[in-house]
Amino acid sequence: MGTLVLRRLLASIPVLVLVTAGVFSLIHLTPGDPVEAMMGESQDPVAKEALRRQLGLDRPLYVQYAVWVGRVLQGDLGRSIRNNEPVVENIGRRIRPSIQLALFAMLISLTVAFPVGILSATHRNSPVDGLGTMFALFGICMPNFLIALLLIFVFGVSLRWLPISGYVDPLQDPLAGIRSLTLPAVTLGLALAAVITRTLRSSLLEVLSEDYVRTARAKGLADRLVIRRHALKNGLIPVVTLLGLQFGTLIGGAVITEYVFALPGVGRLVVDAIFSRDYPLVQGVILLISIGFILSNLVVDVVYGWLDPRIRYG
User: Fold this and answer.
1) What is the DSSP letter of 79?
2) What does the pLDDT look like over 112-124, one tens digit per residue?
3) For the chain, what is the largest distance between any 2 Cα atoms, rounded to a whole number of angstroms?
4) Is residue 3 part of a domain?
5) Does residue 122 lie within any of the structural domains?
6) Which residues 6+ apart lie within 8 Å of 123 measured at CB?
7) Is there a single domain that holds both residue 269 and residue 170?
8) Rounded Cα distance, 29 and 7, in Å
9) Domains held by the chain: number
C-alpha cells in the first residue's frame, strides 16, 4: 500500500505542473491589469511602471512562473496584490467554511442517496423505483441557484426556520453554525444525492444480476443480507469514484452557492481574486484545489483495494 501511495504522489507532480502552468498562462491572458486595479484612476506612468517592476509583472511570463514555482517549493505562495497579505493567510481564513460546507453537503447527499438508490435497485420498475428516478432527474436537471432560491423562500422567508445568509463557525457555536450551513449544504447535497442515486442504482442492478447473488438467494439468505454482505460492497466502486471527484468539486466549485448565501468560502475568494486580477491569490487557490483533487483520488485508489481485493495495481 505504501508503494501505491508513493507512486500516485509521484505521478501527481506532472499534473500539478500542467494545471498550474495552464492557469498561470490563462489568468495573465485575461483582459485587465492588476496595476490599473490597484492604482485606480492614477495617471502617473512612472509610478505604475515602478509598481509593475515591484510586482515582477514586467518580466516574461515563463520567468514569472519559474519564480512562483521556486517560492512554492519553499512554502511561500506569495502575497495578495489586492491587500498585500500572504496568500496562505487569505486562503486560511476562507478554507474552513468551504470544507465544513463540503462535508455537510456530502453527509446530506449520502444520507439521502443510499436509501433511495438501494430501494430503487431492489424494487426495479415499481412505484418506488419511479419516485427514485424522478428525484434523481429533478436533482440533476434543477440548477443549484434555483434550488437555493426555493429553499430560501420556503424555509427562510415563509417559515423562517433557518437563516438565509451569513456564516457562523460550528466549532465556536455548534447550533448556530449548523443552522447557517443547513440551506447551502442542502442545496449542494440534493444535486450530489441525485447523481449518487443514479450511479448506485445502476451499479446495484448490474451486481444483482450476477451469479453469486442468485446463489446467495438460492441458499435462503434474506434480501437485506444479500444486499449488505454481497451486493452493496461490490456496487460501491463506481460510487466511490464519484465521491472522490465530487468532494474536490464541492470545496472549490460551490461559487454560486457561496454567493447566494453570503458564505466566506474559497469559491467567493477565487472569483473576487479573478475580478481584481490578483494573480498570486488565484494561483494559490488553484494549487489548493488541485492538491485536494489529487488527495481525494488517492483516497479513492486506497478504498478500491478494500472494496475489491481482486484489484491489483501494476
Assistant:
1) B
2) 998 998 888 888 8
3) 86
4) no
5) yes
6) 129
7) yes
8) 34
9) 2
